[in-house]
Amino acid sequence: TQSYTDVASISVVPSTTGGRVYYYFPFSALSDPAKLFNDLRWNITRPQGLEAVMRVRCSQGLQVQDYSGNFCKRVPTDIDLPAIDSDKTIMVSFKHDDKFQENSECGFQCALLYTTVYGQRRIRVINISLPCTSMLSNLFRCADLEAQFTYVVKQAANGIPSSSLSQVRDQVTSTCINILQSYRQYCASVSSSGQLILPEALKLLPLYTLGMISSI
After folding, report:
1. Bridge partners (DSSP) listed for residue 68
2. CA–CA separation, 149 vs 172, rounded Å?
3. Which domains does the chain have, with CATH numbers?
4. Looking at the DSSP assignment, which residues form a beta bridge with residue 122?
């Protein structure tokens, strides 16, 4: 249709059932049918699980703060995914609730219980252990830019239905500024006040941020 469509209202159903909104605008009878066909074919034929329940656990000193993605949450510890496949991602944020011992490790576990298309009930468990540090310089040196910016993007997307676009852009900009300001304040050596100082692992963060706010 060429008429107005409220995508935010339509997206409520897929956002709670593990689905996705496909938006073709303006729809072209010449170029879009092939894309529509490929999207439908992939949705039908791709490997997927049904009736899934996921829980993330972590070591003492951390706790799961929030989940972000397309799912239904009925209890605080688990998320329900009517459908799950390799194209879906779930973002999990953690918060500190205790101190860590230096040179120790934190463990994380993600357990997914699901039903295959053949009716078999299975569980997939992923474990990972990461080193702890109390030094901010180590934290910035080992930062994962793609993972951190994905968090920023998802937070911005979640805020679009309830906030103005200018507010979302300001929030994204403030996040970038706060990260770089923290690095300059706590990790960088003495330098000129007008000099831009970037951690090596996050040196493309301003570029990513500019690209994002220009497309919002």
Report:
1. 91
2. 10
3. 135-216 (1.20.120.730)
4. 114
* 121 φ/ψ angles, rounded to the nearest 5 degrees: -90, 125
pLDDT tens profile 146-205: 999 999 999 998 888 888 999 999 999 999 999 999 998 888 876 666 677 888 999 999
**Using alpha carbons only, what angle is made at residue 172 by residues 20 and 177, rounded to the nearest 5 degrees?**
150
DSSP symbols for the chain: --S---HHHHTHHHHHHT------SS--TTTHHHHHHHHHHHHHHS-EEEEEEEEEEE-TTEEEEEEESS-B-SSSSEEEEEEEETT---EEEEEE-S---TT-EEEEEEEEEEE-TTS-EEEEEEEEEEE--S-HHHHHHT--HHHHHHHHHHHHHHHTTTS-HHHHHHHHHHHHHHHHHHHHHHTSPS--TT-----GGGTTHHHHHHHHHTT-
pTM for the model stands at 0.81
Question: Distance of CA 57 to CAs 68, 77, 93, 100, 185, Å?
Answer: 16, 9, 12, 17, 33
